[in-house]
From TrEMBL:
Protein name: Fructose-1,6-bisphosphatase class 1
Alphabetic keyword roster: Calvin cycle, Carbohydrate metabolism, Cytoplasm, Hydrolase, Magnesium, Metal-binding
Pfam families: FBPase, FBPase_C
UniProt pathway: Carbohydrate biosynthesis; Calvin cycle
Cofactor(s) the record lists: Mg(2+)
Encoding gene (name): fbp_1
Length: 335
């Protein structure tokens, strides 16, 4: 009823960011504006996705391959461009770097005054797009260091501790935005009738251990012995459930909420695994640590990894602290 609805303190995302920083300093206002822009991009992408089967040219492939050698979907391009156009108007960002672009995209009118860089994966879990299953967008914000006049963006090749903010948008039955600015992890649900992301959970903490293990077991014979040993351990013990959707954001969200571990280990063909550091694994590592969990390459804390190039890949073991530690102990044993 109406009274019940009003009972609820409807905290919007931008208000939440300001509250978190407890200030109206220039940086607090910048972060609030940046998060607002990300929310706008999420709303635009969510809107297109809800009608994708009805709109011409929303689904399927473009016929091109990206820097990573992966086939590009129309939705990848749409979402990539949404972030660019939304940030063009912000004045705060001079460069954007994404999975879909070999080099960063510069917005000359915002350079060099744009003090921040947006790193993002516009559509994570692309293979789910055409079958109407969950997908996501992942984002990370870093402060631009230096003028980058030669446009080489070398200042981005730093560890994950440099992130000012990180998060994702999950396009599922509802659209959910999860973010952290280094003060806990908070989730917001899009109320489509208001067009606003409203706070749904504050200070999320991942359980110390969980039943879920999330990994593509089709790669079993591609892994190191240590990973196979861990999976055999899981198979022999009660209380584990396999959950793998093919979209990292969705699998990660389950683990954040319920506990467990997500793994994308190196394979024989790709010893560094599949996932990219700057706009996939580092943002999620930032979130999980803020939620009391852990993220690792298997042998190193993920946030400590310094990328050697923009599209640098890392293996990923992420989730509940006890589960990540167990995987690491199997890897340690075999070294
Ligand atoms: P994408 O960003 O191109 O969609 O690739 C990343 C995705 C992750 O969402 C998911 O966890 C993984 O790739 C699935 O890969 P695989 O099919 O090898 O298991
Ligand atoms: Mg991805």
């Amino acid at each position: 009823d109406a009274a019940h609805v009003l009972d609820r303190d409807c905290t919007t995302l931008s208000r939440h960011v300001l509250q978190q920083l407890q200030s109206f300093s220039a940086e607090a206002q910048d972060l609030s504006a940046l998060m607002n822009r990300i929310a706008l991009a999420g709303k635009l992408i969510a809107r297109r996705l809800t009608r994708a089967g009805l709109v011409e040219d929303a689904l399927g492939f473009t016929g091109r391959t990206n820097v990573q050698g992966e086939s590009v979907k129309k939705m990848d391009i749409y979402a990539n461009d949404v972030f660019i156009s939304v940030f063009k108007q912000s004045g705060l960002v001079c460069r954007l770097a994404s999975e879909e672009m070999e080099d960063p995209y510069y917005i000359p009118e915002n350079c060099p005054i744009g003090r921040y860089t947006l790193l993002y994966d516009p559509i994570d879990g692309s293979s789910n797009v055409d079958i109407n299953l969950n997908i996501g967008s992942i984002f990370s914000i870093r402060r631009q260091q230096g003028d980058d006049l030669d446009q080489k963006a070398t200042d981005l090749l730093q560890d994950g501790h440099q992130q000012l903010a990180a998060g994702y948008i999950l396009y599922g039955p509802s659209t959910v935005l999860v973010y952290s600015i280094g003060r806990g992890v908070h989730s917001f649900t899009l109320d489509p009738s208001l067009g606003e992301f409203i706070l749904s959970r504050e200070n999320i903490q991942v359980p110390a251990h969980g039943a879920n293990y999330s990994v593509n077991e089709g790669n079993f014979w591609q892994w190191d012995d240590s990973i196979r040993d861990y999976i055999r351990y899981v198979h022999r013990h009660d209380g584990y459930s396999a959950r793998y959707s093919g979209a990292l954001v969705g699998d990660f969200h389950r683990i954040l909420m319920q506990g467990g571990v997500f793994l994308y280990p190196g394979t024989r063909k790709r010893p560094e695994g599949k996932l990219r550091l700057l706009y996939e694994t580092a943002p999620l590592a930032f979130l999980i640590e803020q939620a009391g969990g852990q993220a690792s390459t298997g042998t190193q804390r993920l946030l400590d990894v310094v990328p050697s190039e923009l599209h640098h890949r890392t293996p990923l073991v992420i989730g509940s602290p006890e589960d990540v530690a167990l995987v690491e102990s199997f890897i340690q044993e075999r070294r």
